[in-house]
Write a structure and sequence with these properties.
This protein is α/β, with parallel strands linked by helices. The chain contains six helices and five strands. It has helices at 11-23, 41-53, 68-74, 88-98, 112-124, 131-140; strands at 2-6, 28-30, 59-64, 82-84, 102-106. The chain starts with a strand and ends with a helix.
């Protein structure tokens, strides 16, 4: 299951991603927000990330205006490796090389079509392990 959340600046793009999930029968849990009224992005990031650390969800998508705030908030949580991506190569490689478990996207930075491609690349990528494993283990210390 994929955890998904946004702040008010990412609500429209989160809705687009959820539509993609529904159309492709991808299981997800929506942690909000549920409209464009102002909310604090660290609260949403914390709820999404807690679901990943607990094992309830396998990975997460966080959306805000730029993706940066969500990325900073998510990376404060032990066990989370969040990456703010705006190109498909990075969205794929962050999973393959860094074993990232959260993709952060900025609604004001990427369009809807690109956002779906970012999500697809992130979700379809697999951690390569090997030489990357020792580096990820260092991040966890």
């Amino acid at each position: 299951m994929i955890a998904i959340g946004c702040d008010h600046g990412g609500f429209t793009l989160k809705s687009t991603i959820i539509k993609y999930f529904d159309e492709n029968r991808i299981k997800y849990k929506d942690f909000g927000c549920f409209n464009t009224e102002s909310v604090d992005y660290p609260d949403i990031a914390q709820e999404v990330c807690k679901s990943i650390v607990s094992g309830e969800c396998e990975s997460g998508i966080l959306v805000c205006g730029t993706g940066i705030g969500m990325s900073i908030a998510a990376n404060k949580i032990k066990g989370i490796r969040a990456a703010c991506c705006s190109d498909t190569f990075s969205a794929k490689l962050t999973k393959e090389h860094n074993d990232s478990n959260v993709l952060c996207i900025g609604e004001r930075v990427v369009g809807q079509g690109l956002a779906i491609m970012l999500v697809e690349n992130f979700l379809n990528a697999k951690f390569e392990g090997g030489r990357h494993l020792a580096r990820v283990e260092k991040l966890e210390k």
